[in-house]
Write a structure and sequence with these properties.
about 325 residues; alpha+beta; 3-stranded antiparallel sheet; flat
Length: about 325
Protein backbone atom coordinates (compact mmCIF):
# COMPACT_ATOMS: atom_id res chain seq x y z
CA UNK A 1 0.00 0.00 0.00
CA UNK A 2 1.11 3.55 -0.58
CA UNK A 3 2.68 5.20 2.42
CA UNK A 4 1.10 8.60 2.85
CA UNK A 5 3.01 11.54 4.23
CA UNK A 6 0.08 13.95 4.44
CA UNK A 7 -2.33 13.40 7.34
CA UNK A 8 -5.99 13.84 6.28
CA UNK A 9 -8.80 14.87 8.62
CA UNK A 10 -9.88 12.24 11.13
CA UNK A 11 -13.36 10.84 11.53
CA UNK A 12 -15.20 12.81 14.19
CA UNK A 13 -16.81 11.03 17.11
CA UNK A 14 -20.04 12.84 16.19
CA UNK A 15 -20.09 11.27 12.71
CA UNK A 16 -22.37 8.31 12.10
CA UNK A 17 -21.51 5.90 9.34
CA UNK A 18 -22.67 2.53 8.18
CA UNK A 19 -20.09 -0.26 7.81
CA UNK A 20 -20.00 0.32 4.05
CA UNK A 21 -19.48 4.05 4.52
CA UNK A 22 -16.68 3.40 6.99
CA UNK A 23 -15.01 1.08 4.53
CA UNK A 24 -15.13 3.78 1.85
CA UNK A 25 -13.80 6.49 4.15
CA UNK A 26 -10.87 4.69 5.75
CA UNK A 27 -7.49 6.02 4.64
CA UNK A 28 -4.83 3.37 5.04
CA UNK A 29 -1.18 4.40 5.32
CA UNK A 30 0.38 1.00 5.61
CA UNK A 31 -0.10 -2.73 5.37
CA UNK A 32 -0.14 -4.59 8.67
CA UNK A 33 -1.00 -8.16 9.49
CA UNK A 34 -4.73 -7.63 9.09
CA UNK A 35 -5.42 -11.16 7.95
CA UNK A 36 -8.78 -10.61 6.30
CA UNK A 37 -10.85 -12.52 3.78
CA UNK A 38 -12.48 -10.08 1.44
CA UNK A 39 -13.49 -12.93 -0.86
CA UNK A 40 -14.87 -15.01 1.99
CA UNK A 41 -17.38 -17.55 0.64
CA UNK A 42 -20.96 -17.23 1.82
CA UNK A 43 -20.63 -20.61 3.52
CA UNK A 44 -18.11 -19.09 5.94
CA UNK A 45 -20.50 -16.39 7.12
CA UNK A 46 -22.93 -16.57 10.00
CA UNK A 47 -25.70 -14.24 11.11
CA UNK A 48 -25.18 -15.24 14.73
CA UNK A 49 -22.37 -14.08 16.97
CA UNK A 50 -22.96 -16.98 19.37
CA UNK A 51 -21.04 -19.67 17.52
CA UNK A 52 -19.82 -23.13 18.40
CA UNK A 53 -17.30 -24.39 15.86
CA UNK A 54 -18.24 -27.62 14.13
CA UNK A 55 -14.85 -29.09 15.08
CA UNK A 56 -14.88 -31.01 18.35
CA UNK A 57 -12.96 -29.50 21.23
CA UNK A 58 -13.58 -25.91 20.10
CA UNK A 59 -16.04 -23.36 21.37
CA UNK A 60 -16.07 -19.75 20.22
CA UNK A 61 -18.68 -17.62 21.99
CA UNK A 62 -19.03 -14.05 20.72
CA UNK A 63 -15.61 -14.33 19.11
CA UNK A 64 -13.86 -15.59 22.26
CA UNK A 65 -12.36 -19.05 21.65
CA UNK A 66 -11.81 -21.91 24.07
CA UNK A 67 -9.77 -24.91 22.91
CA UNK A 68 -9.75 -28.43 24.28
CA UNK A 69 -6.63 -30.60 24.65
CA UNK A 70 -6.36 -31.77 21.01
CA UNK A 71 -6.51 -28.34 19.30
CA UNK A 72 -4.33 -26.88 22.05
CA UNK A 73 -1.69 -29.51 21.34
CA UNK A 74 -1.91 -28.80 17.61
CA UNK A 75 -1.56 -25.05 18.18
CA UNK A 76 1.55 -25.64 20.28
CA UNK A 77 3.04 -27.89 17.58
CA UNK A 78 2.31 -25.32 14.89
CA UNK A 79 3.86 -22.49 16.85
CA UNK A 80 6.99 -24.56 17.47
CA UNK A 81 7.30 -24.96 13.70
CA UNK A 82 7.02 -21.20 13.23
CA UNK A 83 9.49 -20.39 16.00
CA UNK A 84 11.97 -23.08 14.90
CA UNK A 85 12.05 -21.46 11.46
CA UNK A 86 12.38 -17.99 12.98
CA UNK A 87 15.25 -19.23 15.15
CA UNK A 88 16.95 -20.73 12.09
CA UNK A 89 16.81 -17.23 10.56
CA UNK A 90 18.49 -15.87 13.75
CA UNK A 91 15.34 -14.07 14.89
CA UNK A 92 15.36 -12.80 18.47
CA UNK A 93 12.24 -13.66 20.52
CA UNK A 94 10.43 -10.75 22.17
CA UNK A 95 7.47 -10.34 24.50
CA UNK A 96 5.43 -7.16 24.09
CA UNK A 97 2.70 -5.76 26.37
CA UNK A 98 -0.86 -7.07 25.93
CA UNK A 99 -2.13 -3.50 26.38
CA UNK A 100 -0.70 -0.41 24.69
CA UNK A 101 -1.23 3.31 25.33
CA UNK A 102 -3.82 4.75 22.97
CA UNK A 103 -1.54 7.76 22.40
CA UNK A 104 1.12 5.44 20.96
CA UNK A 105 -1.38 3.66 18.71
CA UNK A 106 -2.73 7.01 17.54
CA UNK A 107 0.79 7.92 16.46
CA UNK A 108 0.84 4.74 14.38
CA UNK A 109 -2.38 5.73 12.62
CA UNK A 110 -4.52 2.98 14.15
CA UNK A 111 -7.57 5.12 14.94
CA UNK A 112 -7.24 7.04 11.71
CA UNK A 113 -7.34 3.88 9.64
CA UNK A 114 -9.15 1.20 11.65
CA UNK A 115 -11.45 2.87 14.23
CA UNK A 116 -14.16 0.24 13.78
CA UNK A 117 -11.77 -2.53 14.89
CA UNK A 118 -10.65 -0.77 18.06
CA UNK A 119 -11.16 -2.19 21.54
CA UNK A 120 -10.03 -0.11 24.51
CA UNK A 121 -9.58 -0.75 28.22
CA UNK A 122 -10.95 1.38 31.03
CA UNK A 123 -11.24 1.25 34.82
CA UNK A 124 -14.22 1.55 37.09
CA UNK A 125 -14.87 5.02 38.47
CA UNK A 126 -15.49 4.09 42.08
CA UNK A 127 -16.59 7.66 42.84
CA UNK A 128 -19.43 7.47 40.31
CA UNK A 129 -21.26 4.35 41.48
CA UNK A 130 -21.54 1.89 44.33
CA UNK A 131 -20.30 -1.71 44.22
CA UNK A 132 -23.96 -2.81 44.04
CA UNK A 133 -24.51 -0.65 40.94
CA UNK A 134 -21.41 -2.08 39.28
CA UNK A 135 -22.61 -5.57 40.08
CA UNK A 136 -26.12 -4.98 38.72
CA UNK A 137 -24.74 -3.52 35.50
CA UNK A 138 -22.30 -6.41 35.12
CA UNK A 139 -25.06 -8.98 35.65
CA UNK A 140 -27.06 -7.22 32.92
CA UNK A 141 -24.09 -7.61 30.57
CA UNK A 142 -22.66 -4.07 30.23
CA UNK A 143 -21.25 -1.43 32.52
CA UNK A 144 -22.67 2.08 32.36
CA UNK A 145 -20.12 4.19 30.42
CA UNK A 146 -20.69 7.02 32.89
CA UNK A 147 -19.34 4.74 35.61
CA UNK A 148 -16.03 4.24 33.76
CA UNK A 149 -12.88 6.33 33.73
CA UNK A 150 -11.54 7.58 30.37
CA UNK A 151 -9.85 4.79 28.43
CA UNK A 152 -6.09 5.34 28.11
CA UNK A 153 -5.07 1.82 27.10
CA UNK A 154 -6.00 -0.32 24.11
CA UNK A 155 -6.08 -3.98 23.19
CA UNK A 156 -3.93 -4.06 20.02
CA UNK A 157 -5.36 -5.43 16.77
CA UNK A 158 -1.93 -6.57 15.51
CA UNK A 159 1.06 -7.98 17.34
CA UNK A 160 3.62 -5.92 15.45
CA UNK A 161 2.58 -2.59 17.01
CA UNK A 162 4.29 -3.46 20.28
CA UNK A 163 7.47 -4.38 18.42
CA UNK A 164 7.75 -1.02 16.66
CA UNK A 165 7.12 0.78 19.93
CA UNK A 166 9.81 -1.40 21.54
CA UNK A 167 12.31 -0.14 18.96
CA UNK A 168 11.23 3.51 19.02
CA UNK A 169 14.05 6.06 19.09
CA UNK A 170 16.63 3.31 18.56
CA UNK A 171 19.22 2.82 15.85
CA UNK A 172 19.27 -0.44 13.92
CA UNK A 173 22.69 -1.98 13.32
CA UNK A 174 24.12 -2.45 9.85
CA UNK A 175 23.14 -6.12 10.04
CA UNK A 176 19.49 -5.19 10.56
CA UNK A 177 17.19 -6.68 13.19
CA UNK A 178 14.94 -9.73 13.01
CA UNK A 179 12.53 -10.49 15.87
CA UNK A 180 9.61 -12.80 16.52
CA UNK A 181 6.66 -12.38 18.83
CA UNK A 182 3.48 -14.27 19.66
CA UNK A 183 0.83 -11.63 20.24
CA UNK A 184 -2.71 -11.73 21.55
CA UNK A 185 -4.75 -9.61 19.15
CA UNK A 186 -8.23 -8.13 19.47
CA UNK A 187 -10.66 -6.85 16.86
CA UNK A 188 -14.19 -5.53 17.06
CA UNK A 189 -15.52 -7.31 13.98
CA UNK A 190 -18.99 -6.90 12.45
CA UNK A 191 -19.60 -10.63 12.99
CA UNK A 192 -17.81 -13.66 14.39
CA UNK A 193 -17.61 -17.15 12.95
CA UNK A 194 -16.01 -20.06 14.80
CA UNK A 195 -12.22 -19.99 14.54
CA UNK A 196 -12.43 -18.20 11.20
CA UNK A 197 -13.30 -14.77 12.60
CA UNK A 198 -12.61 -13.97 16.24
CA UNK A 199 -12.60 -11.07 18.64
CA UNK A 200 -9.49 -12.40 20.42
CA UNK A 201 -6.88 -14.50 18.63
CA UNK A 202 -3.15 -15.21 18.53
CA UNK A 203 -0.74 -14.14 15.85
CA UNK A 204 2.84 -15.29 15.42
CA UNK A 205 4.89 -12.66 13.65
CA UNK A 206 8.45 -12.49 12.38
CA UNK A 207 9.45 -8.88 11.81
CA UNK A 208 12.46 -7.41 10.02
CA UNK A 209 13.83 -3.90 10.57
CA UNK A 210 16.65 -2.50 8.45
CA UNK A 211 17.35 -1.36 4.93
CA UNK A 212 14.84 -1.82 2.09
CA UNK A 213 17.00 -4.65 0.76
CA UNK A 214 17.07 -6.44 4.11
CA UNK A 215 13.32 -6.20 4.63
CA UNK A 216 12.62 -7.32 1.05
CA UNK A 217 14.88 -10.35 1.53
CA UNK A 218 12.89 -11.23 4.67
CA UNK A 219 9.68 -11.28 2.64
CA UNK A 220 11.23 -13.59 0.05
CA UNK A 221 12.41 -16.02 2.73
CA UNK A 222 9.05 -15.81 4.50
CA UNK A 223 7.06 -16.53 1.35
CA UNK A 224 9.27 -19.52 0.58
CA UNK A 225 8.77 -20.88 4.12
CA UNK A 226 4.97 -20.58 3.98
CA UNK A 227 4.88 -22.42 0.66
CA UNK A 228 7.24 -25.15 1.85
CA UNK A 229 5.28 -25.54 5.10
CA UNK A 230 1.91 -25.84 3.39
CA UNK A 231 3.32 -28.35 0.88
CA UNK A 232 4.94 -30.45 3.61
CA UNK A 233 1.68 -30.53 5.60
CA UNK A 234 -0.43 -31.20 2.53
CA UNK A 235 -2.59 -28.12 3.03
CA UNK A 236 -3.76 -26.48 -0.23
CA UNK A 237 -3.19 -22.71 -0.13
CA UNK A 238 -3.28 -19.99 -2.73
CA UNK A 239 -1.20 -16.83 -2.81
CA UNK A 240 -3.07 -13.61 -3.55
CA UNK A 241 -1.98 -10.01 -3.82
CA UNK A 242 -3.97 -8.11 -1.22
CA UNK A 243 -4.77 -4.66 0.04
CA UNK A 244 -6.43 -3.53 3.20
CA UNK A 245 -10.18 -4.26 3.30
CA UNK A 246 -10.95 -0.76 4.60
CA UNK A 247 -9.01 0.86 1.80
CA UNK A 248 -10.71 2.92 -0.91
CA UNK A 249 -10.29 0.57 -3.88
CA UNK A 250 -11.06 3.35 -6.38
CA UNK A 251 -8.47 5.84 -5.13
CA UNK A 252 -5.01 6.83 -6.28
CA UNK A 253 -3.30 4.63 -3.69
CA UNK A 254 -5.31 1.61 -4.81
CA UNK A 255 -3.84 2.13 -8.28
CA UNK A 256 -0.37 2.28 -6.72
CA UNK A 257 -0.97 -1.03 -4.96
CA UNK A 258 -1.93 -2.68 -8.23
CA UNK A 259 1.50 -1.73 -9.58
CA UNK A 260 3.60 -2.20 -6.44
CA UNK A 261 2.09 -4.92 -4.25
CA UNK A 262 2.90 -4.45 -0.57
CA UNK A 263 0.96 -7.40 0.84
CA UNK A 264 0.34 -11.02 -0.12
CA UNK A 265 -2.03 -13.39 1.63
CA UNK A 266 -1.97 -17.17 1.68
CA UNK A 267 -5.55 -18.44 1.67
CA UNK A 268 -7.16 -21.76 2.40
CA UNK A 269 -10.65 -22.06 0.85
CA UNK A 270 -10.83 -18.27 0.55
CA UNK A 271 -9.73 -17.64 4.15
CA UNK A 272 -6.39 -15.89 4.74
CA UNK A 273 -4.23 -17.84 7.20
CA UNK A 274 -0.90 -16.04 6.69
CA UNK A 275 0.41 -12.86 5.12
CA UNK A 276 3.66 -11.18 4.16
CA UNK A 277 3.73 -7.40 4.32
CA UNK A 278 6.08 -4.53 3.66
CA UNK A 279 5.60 -1.22 5.43
CA UNK A 280 8.50 0.61 3.76
CA UNK A 281 9.55 3.44 6.14
CA UNK A 282 6.15 4.14 7.69
CA UNK A 283 6.82 2.69 11.15
CA UNK A 284 10.46 3.74 11.07
CA UNK A 285 9.37 7.34 10.61
CA UNK A 286 6.49 7.21 13.11
CA UNK A 287 8.64 5.58 15.81
CA UNK A 288 11.94 7.31 15.01
CA UNK A 289 13.67 4.00 14.26
CA UNK A 290 16.80 4.85 12.29
CA UNK A 291 19.68 3.30 10.40
CA UNK A 292 23.32 4.17 10.97
CA UNK A 293 23.13 6.95 8.36
CA UNK A 294 20.26 8.60 10.23
CA UNK A 295 17.51 7.69 7.74
CA UNK A 296 14.34 5.92 8.80
CA UNK A 297 14.43 2.12 8.95
CA UNK A 298 12.22 0.02 6.71
CA UNK A 299 10.14 -2.84 8.14
CA UNK A 300 8.42 -5.98 6.89
CA UNK A 301 6.44 -8.76 8.56
CA UNK A 302 5.37 -12.35 8.26
CA UNK A 303 2.15 -13.11 10.14
CA UNK A 304 0.45 -16.42 10.98
CA UNK A 305 -3.11 -16.41 12.34
CA UNK A 306 -2.86 -19.35 14.73
CA UNK A 307 -6.56 -20.07 15.20
CA UNK A 308 -7.21 -19.82 11.48
CA UNK A 309 -4.52 -22.41 10.85
CA UNK A 310 -6.31 -24.65 13.33
CA UNK A 311 -9.58 -24.25 11.44
CA UNK A 312 -7.93 -24.90 8.08
CA UNK A 313 -6.14 -28.03 9.30
CA UNK A 314 -9.14 -29.45 11.12
CA UNK A 315 -11.36 -28.78 8.14
CA UNK A 316 -8.96 -30.21 5.55
CA UNK A 317 -7.96 -33.34 7.44
CA UNK A 318 -11.35 -33.97 9.02
CA UNK A 319 -10.17 -34.09 12.64
CA UNK A 320 -7.44 -33.17 15.08
CA UNK A 321 -5.58 -36.50 15.11
CA UNK A 322 -5.03 -36.52 11.36
CA UNK A 323 -4.10 -32.83 11.39
CA UNK A 324 -1.65 -33.38 14.25
CA UNK A 325 0.01 -36.24 12.39
CA UNK A 326 0.31 -34.17 9.21
CA UNK A 327 1.97 -31.28 11.06
CA UNK A 328 4.35 -33.60 12.92
CA UNK A 329 5.30 -35.27 9.64
CA UNK A 330 5.92 -31.85 8.11
CA UNK A 331 8.16 -30.90 11.02
CA UNK A 332 10.31 -33.93 10.27
CA UNK A 333 10.54 -33.02 6.59
CA UNK A 334 11.36 -29.36 7.22
CA UNK A 335 14.12 -30.13 9.74
CA UNK A 336 15.94 -32.70 7.59
Amino acid sequence: MLLRRKTPPLLRSSDRYSNDQLRRRQRTDFSVELIEDRDEPAAFRTKENHVTDTLSGVRAHDGLPALGPAPTRLADTLDRLYTDWARSMSATPLTVPPLLPISDLARLGVYENFPQLALVSSSLNVDAATPDQFTRDAVDGALDPYHLLPAALALPSSACYGVYLHFQERQISDAGALVTVLGQCYRNESHYDGLKRLKAFRMREVIALGTPEQTAAHLERSSSFIEQLAKAIGLPVERHAASDPFYDQTGERAAFQRVVTVKHEYRYAGMAIASVNTHHKFFGERCSITLADGTAASTSCLGFGLERWLHALGDHFGGWDAAQQAVENAAGVLTT
